[in-house]
C-alpha cells in the first residue's frame, strides 16, 4: 500500500524508542526495506545485517545487502560456525519435540493397555472378519484385539457394528457364547470369578443372546440337507415363546441347570483371558525394546542427515551469495567463474541463468547474454525477473521479431508487470517510434514506481526526443529509487555532454564509473568528457583502460584516434584506426576520420578514397553533409577541415 510511515510506526512506535522489533529477523528485514525505500541506506544496511544475524538462512536479507553494495563475503557469512549453530538449534528443537512426544506416549500407554483389557467378547465377536487374522489354536477367534494397543485409543465403541445379515454369516460357524461377562471382567482385574445371582424371572433376556439364538436357527435351516424339515412360521413363533416366559433360562442364562455347559464356556473364557494377557505382556516387552532401539537408530540417522543437509545448504548459499555479490559489484567475470562452480541441476535453473545473462549483458557480450536469457525463459516461461534486461539485449541485437514475440509472451503472462511493458517499449524504440515507446515505459513506472530501470528507459526516450528537461527528471527519479543504478548517472552525463556542460558531464560519468569500474563504455565517455575539458593526457589514459577492458569495443579506439589527431599525432592515430578497421570494417565515421588525417598528411588520393568509402557506407544524415563538404575541399591546400567531428 506504500504506507511506509505507518509501517515504520507499527514496527518502531515513536513513544517506545527502546521497544524490540517484533517478529525477529522478519521484522528487521521489513524495517530495512522501509529504510531503503525512504533513502536511509546506512540504517537499512544495519537492519538487514541484524536480520541475517538472527536468521542466517534469510536469503532475502543478504540479497538486499548485495543490492546496496555493502554485503560481506559470502564465505564469511555462511561459515562452518553458522552450520554448527544451525545444527545445534535444530537438534535442541528436535529434542524438545521428541520429549513432548514421549510424554504424550506415556500418558496414552496406560489407556491403550486398559483398552486391551477392557475389550469384551462382544467386541471381539463384532470385529470385522475381513480385517483380522486367526489366533493360533483358536480358529474361531481373530487376532485384531492383540494389535489394538498400537492402533486405537481406549474407547473401543468404534468396533460396534450392526448384526451380520444372513448372507454375510451363512458360511461362518458362529463363535461360542461367552456367558460369564462379569466373571471375565473380574478375572482380568485379578478377582475371583463370581457368578451373577439374578432371578431370571425379573431379568429379561438380553438382545445379544436373542440375536445369537436366531442366528443359530437361521444358519441351521440354511445348512439343513433336508428341505422338508424346515419348520413353519407358527412353529418358530411357538418355539420363541418360552424365551419370554417365566421359566428358568438354562440355554442363555448364567444360572441354568446345565452345569456342564456353563463350566465348558467358563473354561473357554478363562483360557481366552489368560492367552490375551500373556500375549499382551510379551508384545508390550518386545515392542518396548524394538521402540527404544529403533528410536536410537532414527535419532542418529536424523542427526547425521540434518548435519549433512545444513552443510550442503550453506555450501550452496555460499556459492550463490558470492556470485550474486560480485555481480552486484559489477565484477562480472569473477561472478561468472563462481556460477560455473555450481552443480548442473543448480546451474540450469531460471534464477541462475538470468544472473549469468545479466553478467554477460554488463560485459557487453550480447550474444552470450541472449543465449542464457533464452535458456532461462524456456526453462521458466512464467518468470518475469530479468526479462526487462533480456528485452534490452534483443534491442541491441536488432532482433525485432524475437523482441516482439517476447513482449507478447510477457503481456500474456502478466499484463500488470513492469517487465512486460519495458519489453513492449523496447520493441517500439527499436522501430524508432520513441513516443509510443515512452508511453509504454511510463506505464511500467505507473505499475511499479520502484523499478529504477523503467525510469531510466523513460529518460533515454526523452533524450532521444531531445527533451532534456524531462530526461533529467526521470534519471533523477531512478537515482531516488536506487542510488547505485549507474545507468541513470550515465544518462545524466550524456545529457550534460550534449548540452556542452562538460564539468557536469564529467562528474556524472565519474559517479557511474565509481559504481561500475569495469565498464569500457563508461570509461570511454569519461574520457570524452575529459577531452572536452582539454585534459587530453587524462583522456588518453582513460581510453587505454577502456580498450584494455574490452578489446572488441570499437568506440574507445575511435575516440583515442580523435584525441591523437587533436594532439597532431597523425601516424599513431592512423595505426589505431587500422586496428579499428579489423574490428568494425563498415563504420563510415572511421573512414571519414582517416580521410581527414590523409588530408593533413597531404596524401590526397587516399583522402579522396576514404571519403568516398565513407559515403558508400550510407552514413547518418547529420554526417552526410559534413563528409561531402570535406571531400570537396580536399584539393584546397590551405583549407583546413572545419568540423572536428570527422
Automatic annotation (TrEMBL):
Region described as Disordered = 186-205, 220-263
Q: Where are the TPR repeats?
A: 25-58, 418-451, 452-485, 486-519, 588-621
Any idea which UniProt keywords this protein has? Nucleus, Repeat, TPR repeat
Work out whether the entry's keyword set contains Nucleus. yes
Q: Name the source organism.
A: Aegilops tauschii subsp. strangulata (Goatgrass)
Q: Which protein are we looking at?
A: Cell division cycle 27-like protein
Q: Has the keyword Repeat been applied to this entry?
A: yes
List localization entries. Nucleus
